[in-house]
Specification:
It is built from six helices and no strands. It is globular. It has one domain. With 179 residues, the protein is mostly helical.
Length: 179
């Protein structure tokens, strides 16, 4: 049973990081604005930093999906999720109501209690995965039954979420709201 929770946590964290990173890449200019809120740098430097962070986030997600049993990767993801939690808390305290661009163009979320709660949930899932990977004798991988069983429903849900997001973005674009 512990294996299932550890594998499910790995899949959830990986998919969230991959989706959020890719969405930030698609709207890197908007994400650069959020970067400037926390790091007062010139616009060009903020764009470079935004691209770097988005690639790193997507890369961590993809790597975790492919190799969830790497201990060093689990700790790196945990540290990254800790950074996301810190940004969410600082955003809650200092920039409440401002767009966070947490999921790029896929959402119009704002810094607030819900965002901090989601960041905490992601951090706790990363911690569960790290605890599982660090404490297990074997490394979970794509061939492990617990990991595979956790992966199937998450992939289906992510596919559904992507379809919903595409439909929503299409409706917004055709209505002229983004013009």
């Amino acid at each position: 049973m512990t294996e299932m929770f550890g594998a499910a946590a790995a899949v959830v964290v990986a998919v969230v990081l991959l989706a959020a990173g890719c969405a930030k890449l698609a709207t890197a200019g908007e994400f650069a604005t959020t970067v400037q809120v926390f790091i007062p740098v010139p616009r060009r430097a903020a764009k470079v930093l935004a691209w770097f962070l988005a690639f790193w986030e997507a890369g961590l997600g993809a790597s975790t999906l492919l190799r969830p049993g790497l201990v060093w990767l689990a700790f790196t993801v945990l540290a990254f999720c800790g950074g996301l939690l810190l940004v969410a808390i600082l955003g809650l305290l200092r920039h409440r109501g401002r767009e966070c661009n947490c999921f790029g163009g896929l959402s119009r979320g704002r810094f607030g209690g819900w965002g901090a709660g989601r960041a905490l949930a992601l951090f706790l899932a990363a911690a569960l995965h790290t605890w599982y990977v660090n404490g297990s004798a074997g490394s979970p991988g794509l061939g492990d039954s617990a990991y595979s069983m956790a992966l199937v429903p998450v992939v289906v849900l992510v596919g559904f979420a992507v379809m919903q997001a595409a439909d929503t973005l299409t409706a917004i674009r055709t209505s002229g709201v983004l013009e």
